[in-house]
Write a structure and sequence with these properties.
By secondary structure, the chain is an alpha/beta fold. The longest helix has 39 residues. Helix 4 packs antiparallel against helix 5 and helix 5 crosses helix 6. The protein has two domains: 127 residues, Up-down Bundle (Four Helix Bundle (Hemerythrin (Met), subunit A)); 231 residues, Rossmann fold (3-Layer(aba) Sandwich), CATH 3.40.50. Helix content is 41%, strand content 19%. Strands 8-7-6-9-12-17-18 form a seven-stranded mixed beta sheet, with helices on both faces. Strands 13-10-11-16 form a four-stranded mixed beta sheet, with helices on one face. A three-stranded antiparallel beta sheet has the order 3-4-5, covered by helices on one side. Bound molecules: 5-S-methyl-1-O-phosphono-5-thio-D-ribulose. The site of 5-S-methyl-1-O-phosphono-5-thio-D-ribulose has 18 residues, from helix 2 and strand 11.
């Protein structure tokens, strides 16, 4: 998508065939800094420390991490070690395991001399497919926005609530939840986005608000607890969120707080959709609440709040008594029965085993 008129992706390979560039999302929104990943460890740190984050982008970065490792040492031992190191970086988003499995399965049978080039080409393909997939998700989601627009007076805004950042910064481009929004905006439909701040890491405030603003999409930041209120007062036409892992039966694990938004949407008759690429489906898992590992992160993400002070200095402040015990659950699971549907690259389906299997019969069968 565009930053002040210039097209960007969230990750790109440099021409030297051994360096990958990323936008350091831990510095946003106050600084726009790019980093060069030149070692396997750089890639692992970028994922673990959330310089890159969002399920699809984590997968793409992992694929490039293996490619970087193969350039230095294409041995099977290094292939195994790089898989293990990258796989251990974050536990919840399934795209990480998907991208690593795809890459390892491709490379293992190849002679060592061919592995590096094959890994680079494969990582580039994962990125291109992610862009196409998210564009297709946007096309299907756009239909929902058009249906709502058709029932409104000309020019009346269509209000969409989203949680966390499932935008282009969480993918290679377009985003998942934001892709229908960008496509509607680009067509001239008057979309407005309610952006949940998304404590504790504020991906909504620092990333979604930033990218929507840079693309010129009308939006308003709200605290996480305001979602129910704006829905109760008829100010939300549609909720669209992303997914870190979707079970074969349609449960969705996404950023902590998603579940509460789905409950509020159900209580207020607001359609609640999850936009997801099929790479986010874990076909081996059915019961999201019991089977998906939920990442628990450092408590300082809750007790310390980063930002910019009145003098323009980036800083962090402690917002609770110094030794307060903190539990930092990063994700929650929204059961399928609370969703109006899943927006995938192949179309919109019911959030259910039958719905997903109907769109992806070959994957459901293979699992
Ligand atoms: O902890 P994060 O920032 O990696 O969590 C990201 C999310 O929860 C997104 O909503 C999800 O990955 C979907 S991104 C297209």
């Amino acid at each position: 998508m565009k930053i002040d008129g210039k097209a960007y992706r969230s990750i790109w390979a440099e021409d030297d065939g051994k360096t990958v560039s990323i936008i350091d999302q831990t510095r946003m929104p106050h600084s726009f800094v790019t980093h060069q990943l030149t070692t396997l460890e750089d890639a692992a740190i970028a994922i673990r420390d959330m310089q890159v984050r969002g399920a699809p982008l984590i997968g793409a970065t992992a694929a490039y991490g293996v490619a970087i490792a193969m350039r230095k040492d294409p041995s099977s031992r290094m292939l195994g070690d790089s898989y293990d190191l990258l796989h251990a970086t974050r536990p919840t988003a399934i795209n990480l395991r998907w991208a690593l499995d795809e890459t390892a399965n491709l490379l293992r049978p190849l002679p060592e001399a061919e592995r590096a080039d094959a890994a680079w080409a494969h990582a580039a393909r994962i990125c291109e497919e992610d862009v196409e997939t998210n564009h297709a998700i946007g096309k299907h989601g756009l239909g929902l926005i058009k249906e709502i627009a058709a029932k409104k007076a000309p020019g009346e805004p269509i209000s969409i609530l989203t949680h966390c950042n499932a935008g282009w910064l969480a993918t290679v481009d377009w985003g998942t939840a934001t892709s229908p929004v960008y496509q509607a905006h680009d067509l001239g439909l008057p979309v407005h986005v309610w952006v949940d701040e998304t404590r504790p890491r504020n991906q909504g405030a620092s990333l979604t608000a930033w990218e929507l603003g840079r693309h010129g999409v009308n939006h308003t930041l709200i605290v996480d607890n305001a979602g129910g209120h704006v829905m109760q007062h008829g100010m939300v036409d549609l909720c669209i969120v992303g997914s870190d892992r979707t079970t074969a039966s349609g449960d969705v694990c996404n950023k902590i707080g998603t579940y509460l938004k789905a409950l509020a949407a159900r209580d207020n008759g607001v359609p609640f959709y999850v936009a997801l690429p099929s790479t986010t489906v874990d076909w081996t898992v059915d019961d999201g609440i019991r089977e998906i590992p939920i990442e628990q992160r450092d408590g300082t993400e809750i007790s310390w709040m980063p930002g910019k002070d009145a003098q323009g200095q980036e800083t962090s402040v402690l917002i609770c008594p110094e030794d307060t015990p903190v539990a930092n659950y990063a994700f929650d699971v929204t059961p399928s029965h609370l969703m109006s549907g899943l927006i995938t690259e192949r179309g919109i389906c019911e959030a259910s085993k039958a719905g997903l299997a109907g769109l992806f019969p070959e994957k459901a069968k293979a699992a």
